[in-house]
Amino acid sequence: MTDYKRPLSFGMSLDPSEGAWDQTRRLARTAEDLGLDYLAVQDHPYQAGHLDAWTLISHLSAFTDQISFLTDVADMQLRPPVMLAKAAMSLSALTGGRIQLGVGGGGIPDAIASMGGPARRGQDIVAFAAESVELMRTALAGGVVRLHSPYHSIGGYHAGPVTPKPVGLWLGAQKPHMLAATGRLADGWISPLNIYVPPLEVPSRQQIIDEAAVEAGRDPTKLRRVYNVIGVIGDHGEGPGLVGDVRRWVDTLTQWVVELGFDTFIFWPATDPQHQLTLFGGEIVPAVRERVDAIRSVR
Question: Cα dist. 58→88, 181, 287 in Å?
């Protein structure tokens, strides 16, 4: 695999649980103070204890000043794509462009059906998601959206408001057909957590994206590559995913940039999120930036 040499960015995944609200707000402020680029919010609205992702992001955007937000990822089966684009454009206009739109086809059909959504599976999800991404690209560009298909019936919506800073449209994908759709249609790939797509499996997935992008006449180096990383920072830490001291984290994330092609890391702390965020933003992020810059300068 290769380094696509895109600028690096780093973010923190926030717990949308209603019971964690006070801590979530403190973490958002800490992440901004540390200079992180993104606050990411998962979208599982069928979880009774979860706050709605868009409502949470909207509130936190008023509580912060500079940090951007990412849906990681918004469920397109429960959020009609043209309306989802409208929500993202509206919030981008209100926040000075601090919104990126991560979307997914929806991976838990029965839970989606419990809220009244369609229980799509397999290739049906892929076809629906690809069509939805195309609709959202048109809407986010401020075009006229018109399509009649088995999945959508849109009769000529004039999209807006178009903001000076474009809203990125990144697709969450894991399997070959959705990865190929990412290469053809999206502005970037959001990988599932490193425990679900481990590093050894990344190169084959990047290759699918790249080949699909080239076949579609697109430049693969223009696509953002996002890795959701769960783990624990600490000399004697235990937990899922990446576990080790600051040095190990710096070495590993640097390797994942220059060898696996990732440019964005969203940290999911497995324990003590306030302390873990301080280590991540205060020590690991600047060290990874410095290390990658040094490697890139001699290549």
Answer: 10, 29, 31
